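User: For documentation purposes, I need each entry recorded in a consistent format: the amino acid sequence on its own, followed directly by the corresponding structure tokens. There are two entries in this batch. Please keep commentary to a minimum and don't merge the entries.

Assistant: Recorded as requested. Entry 1:
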Amino acid sequence: MDFLEIEDLSIDLGEFKLVDVNLKVKKGDYLTIIGPTGSGKSILLETIAGFYKPEKGRIYLEGEDITDLPPEKRNMSIVYQDYVLFPHKTVFDNIAYGLKKKIKDKDKIREEITQITEVLNISHLLHRKPDTLSGGEQQRVALARALVVKPKLLLMDEPFSALDVKTKENLRKLVKKAIKEYETTVLHVTHDFDDVWSLANRVAVMKNGRILQEGEVNEIFYKPSINFVAEFVGTNVLEGEVIDKEDGLTKIKVGSLELLSVDDGDGVVRLSIRPEDIVISKHPIETSARNEFRCKVDRIKRMGNLVYLALSVDDIRLRCILTPNALYSLNIKEGDVVYAVIKATNVRIIS
């Protein structure tokens, strides 16, 4: 049996629900859970934590059925977006709160708090109150409080979403270090794909209370199993037909294009191409990539620190990503004709 096993978990809370959720998590996994708002991600975490009793299904942790155990008996910690710190207590006392229920030796408590605060770079804040801390510092205190009790399972519900980009980057590095040092298994709900790429080894995609696909990060992002997952993770999905195989490559006819893939396939297939794997040039370029074609730039949209280009080749539609600097240096405008280059390794046959 896996470290955490969830079998046919179902609960209906009206606006939110879980429907026959099955999930297996190995010890040491860092699983991120993604999906649209209202898909049941937070309810799944809180049901695992014991805040809700499922109407159907079982939860096993290290082979023990914990479905009916109260939250305090499950040896789990949960971290939320809004920190939930005691405003009248110091950082030291906030972190010590749960630890004092497990350890009575004051020297041991101080030793454990010293260790976790050094890992998370907040040892200089122990005398301070939460309202004197920045958002990033408060979240590190919340993480320290969650990890210092050495939970079997750490649950995190969008812990970085209220923080600025730079603080998120720094906190991810510290979390990665702390998780490694404490050998903690993590379930992390997020809307930020940077959390997935930076921290996770596995990812689950949810919609309407169901897990639609779960697997390694590259598998989900490069080989989504269904259209919704592909659309949600932002990959391009094309339908075509295998017409030939040559030199270990599969040739697929997609509309007016012929694309080469390293994957094997036969008949009608669906292809996945990540937007970041499409290289754009104003002129033909010499490259080892096996797929190059002319296309039109229909639309340019800036989102944060990235620029999304909507491309078309006859009736085929693709999205690609550039940095603002790349867009400026290439001097690409809407209506321009450009060359798209894609390696055969980045044209993935998904069905």
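Entry 2:
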Amino acid sequence: MKINFVELKNFRIFDEFRCGFEDRNVLFGENGSGKTTVIEGLYYGSVFSPLRSFETDKDLVKSGENFFNLKINFSDDKGDTHDIFVGYKIEGDESKKKIMFDGKVTNVVSTSGKLKVVPFLIEDFEIVFGSPSWRRNTMNNVLFSVSSSYYANLINYSKILKRKNALIKMIGEKRNEGSSGAVEDMILLLRNYNESLAKYAVELTFNRLELVENVNNFMLNENLPFEIKVKYKSNIANVVRSSSDPVGELRDYLNQNAEREISYSKSIIGPHLDDLVLYTEGDRVARVYLSQGQVRMVSILFKLSLAKYIHNKTGESPVLLFDDVIGELDESNKKMIFNRLLSLKNTQIVIALSENKYVFRDSYTIKLR
């Protein structure tokens, strides 16, 4: 997969910007020159949400403007060329987003992951140190690129979960009021929600377990000076792995634990609570025993394993986007990462750097001012 060019209008710091790309690309410029903005634009064209999960589409609009446009032209590994266009506009308290793929209006569900990218960020150390939600988001964004149904399953799961949590709170309130008849009807509705949630939860968990298995295989073959393995922490994983009827068994398990969830006033079972935990030798938690330098290396290798997974599942090599993370490594690890990247075949790479000391041989340099 190769990005041919990107066009940005009123996107972050740019009034208008156009840039073409080759196989090996270096975005070079001082802080504030727009290197990260370019990386953000390329990422946005893949999943249609900001690079940083705490931001919204509105944050991407240039100060003083009320819209942004983004266009990316890319070629897939079959040689077919495609266009992605996004137009986002703020109208009073409302906003509208228009997505087009190859000139036809479409939506996020249908188009997310058509352009496959893997971003490498300075904050990727959160893979080791961060919150479970950060790691779940990382898994989700990768799985959007490999499964046409994953995005829809996650959206449907999240919607039903929100309704279920509201219902659980209402059941608690009605019980406090002594409305037993109303509670009985609500319990029946809760069981219906559990039926629907079980179906989506099993699909999501199966996809995530497969991803973790691929990450571990990748790490095992990297000949690292220290052991790294990833464990998927889930309260339903055993059901998904071993049951002949995981949906039915999970539905029954949710129904059996309905009173527990009511006592907690929220859902306490399902993939919305899952986590990835990294371990090193002797099953020691990586965030405790690895040095800062080792964590940086593990974070980059973890992202490379995700790129490998995307290629294995789809036959497409995702574009690798590095936002100034190379500069965070010591000299020996910088050389190791560049050698590792040079060994990748048919993989487009875009690296943002504040200094041009480390660049690829024959790289295409894009100077930003």
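Summary note for entry 2:
The chain has a mean pLDDT of 90.
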